[in-house]
C-alpha cells in the first residue's frame, strides 16, 4: 500500500482530548490487516537500512509497532516504560511535559554497551518523550542515531528537537496543518 493509502486509514478525531486538538487515532490503521502489515514493512525497511541491532519502543503504542518490527527482523525489543512498571532494578530519566514532568525507565541490562538501537514509535509530536528515550538508552550504553515513526506532526517541532539530540528522524506520513 502506498503511504497516501496508509494515511487515509488514520482516523482524525476533532477536539480530543481537548478543544482545538486533532487527535490522530492509529487504532483504525492497526485494525486494517494489510495496512498494518505495510506500515510494519516500511518501518522494518528503515530499521534494517540503519543497521540497528535492537529496537526500543516507548510505552504504549511504540510497543505495538516496535515489537512487530523486532519480530519481523528477529531483533531484540527493548521496552521503554513509564515509572514503576518494571519488576527489576531500573535506570530512568525525568523529562518535561507541557503540563509538568514524567519519567521513563528501563532495565539497564537489556542493552549491550555500544549496541546500535533504533527507536520506533507511532507518533512524533514535540519530541520530548523521544529525546528522553534517547538519553535513557545512551545512559544504558546504547548508540542511538535513528528514530522511525508512523506519523510526524511537523508543526510541533519534534523532528528538529530530535535532531538537536543527535537522532535522525524518518516518518511514514505527516499531518501538517490539517
UniProtKB/TrEMBL annotation:
It catalyses: AMP + diphosphate = 5-phospho-alpha-D-ribose 1-diphosphate + adenine. Pathway: Purine metabolism; AMP biosynthesis via salvage pathway; AMP from adenine: step 1/1. SUPFAM superfamilies: PRTase-like. Transmembrane segments: none annotated. InterPro entries: Ade_phspho_trans (IPR005764), PRTase-like (IPR029057), PRTase_dom (IPR000836), UPRTase/APRTase (IPR050054). The keyword Hydrolase does not apply. GO terms for molecular function: adenine binding; adenine phosphoribosyltransferase activity; AMP binding. It is found in: Cytoplasm. Its EC number is 2.4.2.7. GO terms for cellular component: cytoplasm. Pfam families: Pribosyltran. The keyword Oxidoreductase does not apply. GO terms for biological process: adenine salvage; AMP salvage; purine ribonucleoside salvage. It is an enzyme of class 2 (transferase). Residues 54-142 form the Phosphoribosyltransferase domain. Its main location: cytoplasm. Keywords: Cytoplasm, Glycosyltransferase, Purine salvage, Transferase. Belongs to the purine/pyrimidine phosphoribosyltransferase family. Catalyzes a salvage reaction resulting in the formation of AMP, that is energically less costly than de novo synthesis. Homodimer. NCBIfam families: PRK02304.1-3, PRK02304.1-5. This is Adenine phosphoribosyltransferase. It comes from Qipengyuania vulgaris.
